[in-house]
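User: For a reading group we're discussing how well predicted structures match intuition. Take Sensory neuron membrane protein 2. Before you show the prediction, I'll give you the sequence so everyone sees exactly what went in.
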Amino acid sequence: VRVNAGELDAQSRAVAFGTINRMTERFNESILNRNTTARQALLGREMPIVNKLARMAQTMGMEGRMPELSNSGKYGYVSLTNNSLSGPFEIYTGYQETARSLGELISYKGKRRLNYYDGKCNRMQASVGELRPMPIDPNKRLEMFQPSFCRIIHLEPTGQHKLREGVAVSYALVSDDFASAANNPDNRCFCVNSSGPTSYTMENNRLDDNHCSLDGVIDLGPCSYGAPLLVAPSSVQLDSRIINSLGPAFDPDLLHGEVNEIDMADDKSQVVILKRVGIPIRADITITLFMRLVRDPIFKETANVPEVSYLPLVTVRETVTIPPKLAQIIINLESFISLTYHIKVVMYLSAVVLLFWLSGHYYCITTDNTGRQASQSNEPGSGNGGGGSNGAQLRRATLTST
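Assistant: Thanks. Here is the predicted 3D structure of Sensory neuron membrane protein 2, as structure tokens, for the group to look at:
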């Protein structure tokens, strides 16, 4: 609401925020609510003020610029995505000429490009994570489109390992994807908020606190209706401005989740993928969602905060391991692919041996024939040189054709 109200003139803005201030008092709501449990924060709790604001936005013709709300009237971090479908994703099947594009995204939600950013940053043609061309190159970075991050992210190989399921390659998130535009110019096209109000971009640039200047985070604002949200993986160094805004009493280790309890093959890896079949079998990623809080004297809730603060809303650790039954299927698939590979090699070698055998056999037959012709040419009445020359020419022709 604050972002969208930034487009209003001073008088209209004062009226809008005055209304919001009265509503927060009426519904006894606050930005910092200490009466919410972790379960409610994730799965949702009833918030009459949000439903009231949604109706107001619809009346003012702003419904397309406000987030979708749950039919249950509850609001939470995953209240809309829990038990829901994502997509649809249109991907290449790998059939015939698309073999090298197996699992690559064609379109997401009916679109072939994003419309949040500028130029190449709207590209989404990459793997969606589940399938990749086989076998994978252990020395190359992988690209993956991540809808939650609204962009393509990269995975850097950290080593190869022999696991029960087969030879695997471990990967880690590339820190360049989370770097500021100053430290990674390739990220500059992410700085444009093409779908939101101009005031949002201008304000962020003035405060110098958006993804254009912050390291270690991705700004979700452009693809989240301008919401002041940042996402940061624990494996990437967080910008000092964010850490300093948390205060000296805050322990940054809280952003790293619990101790790693699954075997990830090495300390650096976050994703482990089987080399031959290209299937991920393990993953362990911890991310933190931050809210950027900007002081606004008109809005009572932010009148007394520092000019810019970053509040950690939730830290989520996502771990994935393959169940034993599925692991056995993958092992069988690995063995089958290995078997077919060896069969192809044996068939190829057999064909080569057979070709050489046929060539040699054909050569022996033709040599015997030319030898007879040479003997006949040496009989009385024949020219010796001419016969030998014809025999040599015939042998060369036979060898050439063979």
